[in-house]
Write a structure and sequence with these properties.
The complex is a heterodimer.
Chain A lengths: L1 E4 L2 E4 L3 H13 L5 E5 L15 E2 L8 H11 L6 H20 L14 E2 L9 E2 L5 H13 L5 E5 L1 E9 L2 E9 L5 E5 L2 E4 L20 H8 L4 E2 L4 E7 L10 H4 L3 E3 L31 H13 L4 E3 L2 E7 L4 H8 L1 H11 L8 E10 L2 E3 L11 E3 L4 E2 L11 H24 L6 H19 L7 H15 L3 E2 L1 H18 L13 H25 L8 E2 L7 H4 L1 E6 L7 E6 L19
Parallel strand pairs in A: 1-10, 2-3, 2-11, 3-7, 11-19, 18-20, 21-22
Antiparallel strand pairs in A: 4-6, 5-6, 8-9, 9-10, 12-18, 12-23, 13-17, 14-16, 15-16, 16-17, 23-24
Helix pairs in contact in A: 1-4, 1-10, 2-3, 3-10, 5-14, 8-9, 12-13, 12-14, 13-14
Chain B lengths: L2 E10 L9 E10 L4 H12 L18 E4 L2 E4 L11 E5 L6 E3 L2 E2 L2 H9 L20 H8 L9 H5 L1 H5 L6 H11 L11 H5 L12 H5 L6 H20 L6
Parallel strand pairs in B: 1-5
Antiparallel strand pairs in B: 1-2, 3-4, 3-5, 6-7
The chains are: A alpha/beta, B alpha+beta.
Bound molecules: flavin-adenine dinucleotide and FE2/S2 (inorganic) cluster.
FE2/S2 (inorganic) cluster binds next to loops of chain B.
Chain lengths: 587, 245
């Protein structure tokens, strides 16, 4: 095993990891940064984000309004000091990206354009056509190339954390090209490894989103917070789960059922708004949890459309016209035409809810600090309490930047204070253990299970017990199933014995991480006996602030299911109230 | 949905075991709406877990899944079973060393990417607390060149890169051009080196193969053409008495 010393190790080169790396390199070029990513940075799933990034821009908008939208959108599970900081930094970060060359779409006067987004009272979503995440990621990656202190380790798979005396001291990773192992020693590690949508069968999340960072932290004894809150996006393409951005509705697209009826008005999001002039924060611009739940009811009522890929509703954008669609939603047009054969210029496109985003993640505070000194977490893998029970679309791209910058500053200071970590026997033994574990996986044989098989059962079980609507029996069954699959995981044999780019082994390691994440999602779904935001219980209807105005913290238990503890939500100025999406009445 | 069985030949190579690459055949029952990437994933899950290939987004934006399909460099998530004959041959991208199976070594282009200085270079500070003003006309000038997903299909198609891999190549030149013509940038002169150099724009033979295969319609050939004109001007300016680089 080789040893690499650095001041800060960043695991993940998506939007969050790159933003953090640049921040450190800019403020203190003497700090050596090791940026580890299992894929080349520009393959990170930030590239898939379409709609845009939120930050107050218009003269008629205010930080206060962005704060209120976020907190009510999150069904008051947001930590409000985090939201306050976030809204205050949002536009500054988006301007910074502009200075770095992000090709934001423009208004007639040459200023950056903003579009409406779900659950937002004002137009404040900065966008680059419908490839916002793609452009953000490439801008950050390209900008990062000018800093010699950022040393990249592309296609290195991080395995587990190194820690000693309760402090994080580094991470062990495997180089995909050679199968060689590397122990990275550093006083500060920033986890920026993205979400975990791959625990579900039907998702907008790419193959890389396997919750590796969450699982690494969890195995190191750090709790995962609010894991039961998983966002369904209401408009994915049936079959593939490819996303059609909320921007479709922001620009004026409408949702209809098989009778051509705009059914959202029946679910507390009416009255109907005029076609082609969307009204903010109501009907199609309601929040994602509400829209996805409405689909579920429509399906129960038999109002959905049958397609070769299962039940759907229709997203109608024809009235936007070809010119606008080409200018603002070109990718959407390409995706819908290629994958389901429906050109949105000419016909409505079938869509259905699809797993999209993890509100939960590694428990952190506003600074990205975890419960383990030296370990920081940012971006989708973290849960700072920003998104609460339901993230508003376009808040998370901005969060990558805001949390990336802030925790980079903290991590730099911490690294300087603590100094380089020495190689020592404890850490060496730990690293050997981690590597031994992987070698063990590679060598075992004859259990009769397959990665694809166990993975499929895990995903199906999560969908049935921890999907849009949940209940005690279903969630319990999923907890049991995941525990069973943990056992059966031991019986998977890796056929590929090569050291070179062994994706058979990689997928097994990812499955191990997915199973760890899955047990926390299932346990949270079971133990949160109320309905809030994206977590809806058929047997506990309605929010229960008395008992559950709290974050859940899932701790790993060496044997058996996770232990759940509860943590108070920080409320600074907005007391829990009613989420009103009926248009106009909201203060 | 109806199924269609394809006979797929895949190039296999594991440097630890094989002395040279060889083909393996798989019969894959495909859904008619599948991309060829779905067929590869079927092979990986159901037939042979040892097959190595890169992919992630399955929506044409991450750029990882570039391969040769029946001799053409393509994104496999954007190449559909319905458009292919029954016999399909999948090989790693041409003009790159093979790392393993369908995975190629990308070090060369990754290094070249850095040489292009693909970031905004400013002599004056940017506006304080606000964005640059950039009319749409200025945005549209370079927008197309920002669409590159770095799939490297153009390098596989490029006859010049095939001859001489020191040629900096289409995607990287298009990226340098993208920054050169961005109204916010002031670093054009710093990027001159990579153009003026013999490995730069002058080596392109302008057959336009890069633009033909580009899955994102970036049109690197057009960028090269424009750069050549610009480059020529700048090049001769440098030669004038008192000219500066
Ligand atoms: C289709 C889609 C559309 C979206 N649209 C929007 C939108 O319009 N607006 C918005 O605000 N949000 C949107 N989101 C959400 C947002 O894009 C993501 O939450 C965000 O991009 C995540 O960024 P990240 O940097 O945390 O992670 P990622 O970009 O996923 O990056 C994770 C990084 O970690 C690395 N990594 C992971 N595991 C390991 C390991 N074991 N070893 C080494 N490296 C590892 C990966 O290689 C990668 O570099 C969208 C999400 C999706 C899926
Ligand atoms: S898998 Fe991302 S471009 Fe094909």
């Amino acid at each position: 095993m080789e040893t690499i010393h650095a001041d800060v190790v960043i695991v993940g080169a998506g939007g969050a990891g790159l933003r953090a790396a640049i921040a450190i390199a800019e403020t203190d070029p003497s700090l050596e940064i090791a940026l580890i990513s299992k894929v080349y940075p520009m393959r990170s799933h930030t590239c898939a984000a379409e709609g845009g990034a939120a930050g107050v821009k218009g003269a008629d908008d205010s930080l206060e309004m962005h704060f209120n939208d976020t907190v009510s959108g999150g069904d008051w599970l947001c930590d409000q000091e985090v939201v306050e900081y976030f809204v205050s930094q949002a536009s500054r970060e988006l301007i910074q990206l502009e200075h770095w060359g992000c090709p934001w779409s423009r208004e007639d006067d040459g200023s950056v354009a903003v579009r409406p987004f779900g659950g937002m009272k004002k137009k404040r979503t900065w966008y680059a056509a419908d490839k916002s995440g793609f452009h953000i990621l490439h801008t950050l990656f390209q900008t990062s190339l000018q800093f010699p202190s950022i040393k990249r380790y592309d296609e290195y798979f991080a395995l587990d954390l190194l820690h000693k005396d309760g402090k994080c001291r580094g991470v062990v990773a495997m180089e995909m090209r050679s199968g060689r192992f590397f122990a990275y020693h550093a006083p500060a590690v920033i986890m920026a490894s993205g979400g975990a949508g791959q625990v579900f069968p039907f998702t907008t999340n790419g193959a890389v989103k396997t919750g590796d960072g969450m699982a690494m932290a969890y195995r190191a004894g750090i709790p995962l917070k609010d894991m039961e809150f998983v966002q369904y996006h209401p408009t994915g393409l049936p079959g593939t789960g490819i996303l059609l951005t909320e921007g479709c509705r922001g620009e004026g697209g409408i949702l209809v059922n098989k009778n051509g009826y705009r059914y959202l008005q029946d679910y507390g999001m009416g009255p109907e708004t005029p076609i082609g002039s969307p009204v903010l924060k109501t009907m199609e611009l309601g929040p994602r949890d509400r829209l996805s739940q409405a689909f579920w009811h429509e399906q129960k009522k038999g109002n959905t459309v049958e397609t070769p890929w299962g039940h759907s509703v229709l997203l109608d954008m024809r009235h936007l016209g070809e010119k606008k669609i080409n200018e603002r939603l070109p990718l959407v047009r390409e995706l819908a035409s290629s994958y389901v054969g429906h050109d949105p210029v000419k016909e409505p496109v079938p869509v259905r809810p699809v797993i999209h985003f993890m509100m939960g993640g590694i428990d952190t505070n506003l600074n990205g600090e975890t419960q383990m000194p030296g370990l920081f977490a940012i971006g989708e893998t973290a849960c700072s309490g920003l998104h609460g029970a339901n993230r508003l679309g376009s808040n998370s791209l901005t969060d990558l930047l805001v949390s990336g910058k802030r925790s980079a500053d903290r991590a730099s200071a911490y690294a300087k204070e603590t100094g380089r970590s020495e190689d020592n026997p404890t850490l060496r033994a730990q690293a050997e253990d981690i590597v031994g574990n992987v070698r063990g996986l590679l060598q075992r044989s004859g259990g009769g299970e397959t990665t694809a098989g166990v993975r499929r059962e895990m995903r199906d079980s999560l969908e049935s017990g921890a999907g849009i609507y949940r209940d005690e029996k279903g969630a319990q069954a999923t907890c049991d199933k995941v525990a069973e699959l943990h056992e059966r995981f031991q019986g998977i044999e890796v056929n590929d014995k090569s050291n070179v780019f062994n994706t058979d082994l990689q997928q097994l390691l990812e499955l191990r991480n997915l199973l760890d994440v899955a047990e926390t999602v299932a346990e949270g779904s079971l133990q949160r006996r109320e309905s809030r935001g994206a977590h809806q219980r058929l047997d506990f209807v309605g929010r229960d602030d008395e008992n559950f105005l709290k974050h859940s913290l899932a701790f790993r238990e060496p044997k058996g299911r996770p232990r759940i503890e509860w943590l108070d939500v920080t409320i600074t100025r907005s007391q829990p109230g009613v989420r009103d999406y009926s248009g106009g009445k909201d203060k | 949905m109806s199924k269609r069985t394809l006979d797929i030949e895949v190039l296999r190579y594991d440097p630890e075991q094989d002395t040279e690459p060889h083909f393996m055949s798989y019969q894959v029952p495909c859904e008619e709406d599948w991309a060829i990437l779905d067929a590869l994933n079927y092979i990986k899950e159901e037939l042979d877990t040892t097959l190595a290939f890169r992919w992630s987004c399955h929506m044409m934006v991450c750029g990882s899944c570039g391969m040769m399909v029946n001799g053409e460099p393509v994104l496999t998530c954007k190449t559909f079973v319905r458009d292919l004959p029954k016999d399909v041959r999948i090989e790693p991208l041409e003009n790159f060393p093979i790392e393993r199976d369908l995975v190629v070594v990308l070090d060369d282009v990754m290094e070249k990417l850095q040489m292009a200085k693909p970031y905004i270079i400013r002599k004056d500070p940017p506006p304080e607390n606000e964005e640059f003003n950039q009319p749409r006309s200025a945005l549209y000038k370079f927008k197309q060149y920002t669409m590159c997903v770095n799939c490297m299909c153009c390098y596989s198609a490029c006859p010049q890169y095939a001859l001489d891999s020191s040629f900096i190549g289409p995607a990287v030149l298009a990226l340098a051009h993208r920054y050169n013509i961005d109204s916010r940038d002031q670093g054009k002169s710093e990027r001159l080196d990579i153009l003026a150099d013999h490995d730069g724009v002058w080596n392109c033979s302008f057959v336009g193969a890069c633009s033909e295969v580009c899955p994102k319609n970036v049109d690197p050939a057009a960028a090269l053409q424009q750069m050549k004109i610009d480059g020529a001007k700048a090049y001769w300016l440098q030669k004038l008495p008192g000219g500066k680089s």
